[in-house]
Design goal:
35% of the residues lie in helices and 23% in strands. The chain has helices at 13-28, 52-63, 66-71, 82-85, 87-96, 112-122, 167-171, 179-191, 217-226, 246-254, 271-276, 283-296, 315-328, 355-378; strands at residues 3-9, 31-33, 42-47, 76-81, 102-104, 126-128, 149-153, 155-156, 175-176, 196-200, 233-237, 261-263, 301-308, 332-337, 384-393, 396-401, 406-410, 418-428, 431-436. It has a six-stranded parallel sheet, sandwiched between helices. It has a five-stranded mixed β-barrel with strand order 15-16-17-19-18. Helix 6 (112-122) links the parallel strand 5 (102-104) and strand 6. Helix 8 (179-191) runs parallel beside helix 9, helix 10 runs parallel beside helix 12 and helix 13 (315-328) runs parallel beside helix 14 (355-378). The structure holds iron/sulfur cluster. Residues 158, 160-162, 165, 167-168, 202-203, 240 line the site of iron/sulfur cluster (SF4).
Length: 438
């Protein structure tokens, strides 16, 4: 009889791709995906611990399965990801939810098949939260669910220890995959018809630092993938402002396939707060980096992350962030209210900012960003740009620019996922409206 699985994913693109690998394992064992948990024989929660809210939501979702598990005693429930790598949380899940069959951390997710087989054979619970190992995790075949885009891990972990961030504690130190493996994976993805490849790492600019060969390995990796035959866009996430080099920016500028989209999280516009965050750059350095990028890539699409209300942030510090946003003119800004993460240095800092102040500040920031985006969008009017047709809904063909802006495309005779040239004639909210140019 056909068996089914459901994977519930929380958090970032890293986790989305990790879930594709878990799906790959389950598919290879004969299971098929379902959205209906009452049909599922295996339910996996791939968790995130970057924000308290994500943890609470995951705990709530796991608890909500208790009545179903009572009825479906053979259903297997697994919890993995960043939240279970935190020892305290993993133990809490183990005690609070005795109906959870498998609990595993981030460093041994690739052994999921072994643990699942163990539970199926013995019916005994598996609790495997192991410390970090010096080697790379084994790459398992992914069952890709992200349509025309394929995620590719180039490295794991992070060495930066920003004081608000839990990632280095749950993902371990930086480890880079061999360049030839990544290039071979990309070559196969292009041959399989993927039109967009997104390289993933917590700090892609330090890719290959552990190779100790004195080279800018990320620049070289981009060059080698860009040189592959095919019609595709190449993107990457995430860059750190202290590490993004001129060499990498030049490679992007001279490339055929690399998107002119750079995500460069600034987090704050005050040097004092940046120091408390342990970000290791100043606002001056950041602005110089932006100027350097714009020198080589005048049409760059810049996005950023900003944290509002970091401990001790004053109105003056916050206004420096507003000033920085006005100077840079980001295409997109992801603005977050600071929330305490247990186990990080910032959790214990004095001067926590009241929630009402944080909310008021983030609203001001968002209002400013909306204004900036409106002005930037207006510049697209009349431009002719390359767009990837991605889907057709209710008779409308939708697409994305190489920088991820949504486009409604008119005049399409035959829809297929492919690149087309489009002239932009109108703007509606956050979408461009354009017509195919033959
Ligand atoms: S660079 Fe900083 S924010 Fe990003 S994952 Fe590493 S520690 Fe966290």
């Amino acid at each position: 009889m056909q068996k089914f699985y459901k994977i519930v994913t929380f958090g970032c693109q890293m986790n989305v791709h990790e879930s594709e690998k878990l799906a790959g394992v389950l598919e290879s064992m004969g299971y098929r995906a379902t959205e209906d948990e009452t049909q599922a024989d295996v339910v996996v929660f791939n968790t995130c611990c970057v924000r308290e809210a994500a943890e609470q939501k995951a705990m709530g979702n796991i608890g909500a399965l208790k009545p179903l598990k009572k009825k479906k005693k053979d259903m297997i429930i697994a919890v993995c990801g960043c939240m279970t790598q935190e020892k305290k949380r993993a133990e809490e899940i183990y005690k609070k939810f005795p109906f959870v069959n498998i609990i595993l951390g981030t460093h041994n997710t690739y052994k999921f098949k072994e643990y699942l087989e163990q539970v199926l054979a013995t019916k005994k619970r598996v609790y495997q939260v192991v410390p970090e190992e010096p080697c790379l995790p084994v790459e398992v075949e992914s069952y890709r669910t992200s349509g025309y885009n394929a995620w590719v891990n180039i490295m794991y972990g992070c060495n930066n220890f920003c004081t608000y961030c839990i990632v280095p504690y749950v993902r371990g130190r930086e480890k880079s995959r061999p360049m030839e493996d990544i290039v071979a994976e990309c070559k196969k993805l292009i041959a399989d018809g993927y039109k967009e490849i997104t390289l993933l790492g917590q700090n892609v600019n330090s890719y290959g630092n552990t190779f100790n060969n004195g080279k800018n390995n990320f620049a070289e990796l981009l060059r080698q993938i860009d040189a592959l035959d095919g019609n595709f866009n190449l993107k990457f996430l995430t860059s750190h402002p202290k590490d993004l080099s001129e060499e990498v920016v030049k490679v992007i500028a001279e490339s055929k396939h690399i998107s002119h989209m750079i995500h460069l999280p600034v987090q704050c516009g005050s040097d004092r707060i940046l120091k408390l965050m342990n970000r290791n750059y100043t606002v001056e350095h950041y602005i110089k980096t932006i100027e350097m990028i714009r020198k080589y890539i005048p049409d760059v699409n810049l996005s950023t992350d900003i944290i509002v209300g970091f401990p001790t942030e004053t109105e003056e510090d916050f206004e420096m962030t507003l000033d920085l946003m006005k100077k840079v003119q980001y295409n997109t800004a992801f603005c977050f209210i600071y929330s305490k993460r247990t186990g990080t240095p910032a959790e214990k800092m004095d001067g926590q900012v009241p929630l009402a102040t944080k909310r008021e500040r983030v609203n001001r920031l968002l209002a400013l960003q909306r204004e900036i985006e409106k002005n930037i969008f207006n510049r697209f009017l009349g431009q002719t740009i390359k767009v990837l047709m991605t889907s057709r809904k209710e008779g409308k063909v939708l697409g994305k620019t190489d920088c991820g802006i949504n486009v409604i495309i008119e005049g399409v005779k035959e829809f297929k996922v492919d690149f087309v040239t489009v002239k932009i004639k109108d703007i509606k909210n956050t979408k461009l409206i354009g017509e195919i140019v033959e």
